[in-house]
Amino acid sequence: MDLDKLRKTAAEVVSRDDVKYLIGWRPGSYGYRVAPGFVEEASAAETLIFSPLCTINLATYLTLTEKLPLPRGSAPDQRKVALMVKGCDSRAVLQLLVEKGIRRDQVLLIGCPCPGVVDTALLSLKYPETESPADLKWNGDHFLLRQDGQETAIPRLSVLAEKCRLCRYPNPVISDITLGEPVEAQLTAEDSAVAEVEAMELGARAAYWEEWFSRCLRCYACRNSCPLCYCRDCVLDRLNPTWVNRAVNFSENTAFHVARAFHLVGRCIECGECERVCPANIPLGRLNRKLAREVREQYGHEPGIDPDGKPFQAGFKPDDPEEFIL
Length: 326
Ligand code: SF4
Ligand code: SF4
Ligand code: SF4
Prior knowledge:
It is built from twelve helices and eight strands. The chain is an alpha/beta fold. The chain folds into two domains: about 1-120 and about 160-185, no CATH class; about 190-320, no CATH class. A five-stranded mixed β-sheet has the order 2-1-3-4-8. Strands 5-6-7 form a three-stranded antiparallel β-sheet. Strand 6 and strand 7 form a beta hairpin. The radius of gyration is 20 Å and the shape is globular. One iron/sulfur cluster (SF4) binds near residues 88, 116 and 163.
């Protein structure tokens, strides 16, 4: 993508009277890190980037930063929030619109067709990062890494994020302004990570999840980074009744993960943020993608692609499969 065009467009957008600020990506302060950039002044648009390091799904901030209640005596600022979105991010926005979590006139979407982002952990494992902020570019079947005055060509598939290998919607499904040319969807590879768990016999599968869930710290980073975990009154925080105990052990951790997975059935747009931020490296994507695939195959429903769609859990068709109901 032409960065000059991106920055010029962003400067124009934040200069509009009906826009309060723009959320995009900017270089972080260390190595491969990229941070969310909140741009209020046209001059600050110069800091924005769009690169294979822009993994963060910024849609999460739509519900994080605009939380009510307002300080007493202040009126809500009704101006729009402008947001840069990749394909998966735009699905999160569309799902939020379908659920009426946000209003269409509250957002202005700058769509960024996306050739795929890197798995930052894998990248730093294979190409150890240094302190100075790195620059990474798309270049056909390679990424070009520039850091400390050196340029390295990295085979694309060696560090591509797992979600991007499976991506069906690399182009924004909804946007007001689109930057750059549409990219072709990757040939959707078989989800070998999910298939691996499915192939286990029941006892082995239970042991697999027991091992992972036992490692969970209950830091809730997965919940907090998820664009679709935005309930103001989360069931996990409730004390009366206490649905999930505060104790960090396999039993309560499992209750947490099962509750969260079921609350995301037919809503998860497979952006992979929950797994990316997990400090315990728990493969949450395998759980979420399995459920997403079941909903797609059994009920023909895919969240975040149909602006006129209805929330999955609020719908019912007389011929819905039900053979699993006891
Ligand atoms: S899942 Fe698709 S849209 Fe999202 S980062 Fe990967 S390639 Fe881009
Ligand atoms: S981010 Fe990982 S460790 Fe933290 S609560 Fe979620 S699964 Fe557990
Ligand atoms: S559950 Fe994970 S993959 Fe699904 S929308 Fe939330 S953060 Fe993205």
